[in-house]
Amino acid sequence: MSQESLLSELNDRSREVFRRVVETYLETGEPVGSRTLSRALSEKVSAATIRNVMQDLEFMGLLDSPHVSAGRLPSQMGLRLFVDGMMEIDTVAPTDRAAIDQTLGNDDPDTGLLLDRVSTALSSITRGASLVLMPKHEAPIRHIEFVSLAPDRALVVLVFADGHVENRIFTPPPGQTPSSMREAGNFLNAMAEGRTLAELRSQIGQQIAAKRRELDVLAAELVESGLALWDGETADPRLIVRGRANLLEREAADLDRIRVLFDDLERKRDIVEFLELTESGDGVRIFIGSENKLFSLSGSALVVSPYMNADRKIVGAVGVIGPTRLNYGRIVPIVDYTAQLVGRVLSGRKG
């Protein structure tokens, strides 16, 4: 049943009971009982009547009952319905706005340090864990080199036309030799001049096929493996995480689940998916429980928004992650404001 159909099934009393259950749960994290609701509803309704309404909502899949006499909690489907159809979005409080503005208020030339401050401020303001995905370096490439460190370890060095240098240790395909690495580097350097990394990757498949006779199989594998590294398929310092302690403090009863969440984050090999989550629509997106493709932990929620460069191209994202009982109405506008501000600041910079 669609969300529109579900909402149409709810009369005024059911809507108010459902809304009160969700809002109380988001505030307290505890199951909500009928007696508590009977004192809070705008109309005088008996606890027995409220229990019947809650049973109907549970039958519809919008509420869960952890224990027979423990009251009700919103289900994942219920939280999604509330977020999409009933939630009231707050405005960003002046103090929160000032704290975010302050992180971007100076002319620090180091984008990494600037976004680290943004992540720290976002965590402090929301009392959750913050995520910031930094933009890729988009300058043309001047030189690429592969260096063998051990049979199972290699280094790839990228020198950009603006002087920026990036290097990373990675695991090469088995059987690589210094000769095959030099050949792969020569092949890439011959076609890299004047191209950004993204442009080079878009060309690599066609070029490998056309030049297959000039490259042995091992060198071709190294090209693909080495460049794949720069497309986000390894743990990547582009992803800044701050505020883990906030989750540990607020959710002491769920320490094991929180640890699983961050273990999952730290070993994540495809952080590009974090950015891809935002690309199917503009503005803030909310992922609740198992909807959250980035993490295996079903009890988490992610509020994330992309930011764009001067060409209106998505280059990074900011977000807040925490338990499903986030204060969505407050956090959504904060994440949205932060993403827009980061985009404006970075759009005014070169490279």
TrEMBL record:
It comes from Paracoccus stylophorae. The keyword Zinc does not apply. This is Heat-inducible transcription repressor HrcA. Negative regulator of class I heat shock genes (grpE-dnaK-dnaJ and groELS operons). Prevents heat-shock induction of these operons. NCBIfam families: hrcA. It holds the Pfam family HrcA. InterPro entries: GAF-like_dom_sf, HrcA, HrcA_C, WH-like_DNA-bd_sf, WH_DNA-bd_sf, WHTH_transcript_rep_HrcA_IDD. Keywords: Repressor, Stress response, Transcription, Transcription regulation. The keyword Transcription regulation applies. It comes from the Bacteria. Belongs to the HrcA family. The gene is hrcA. Coiled coil: none annotated. Residues 114-332 form the Heat-inducible transcription repressor HrcA C-terminal domain.
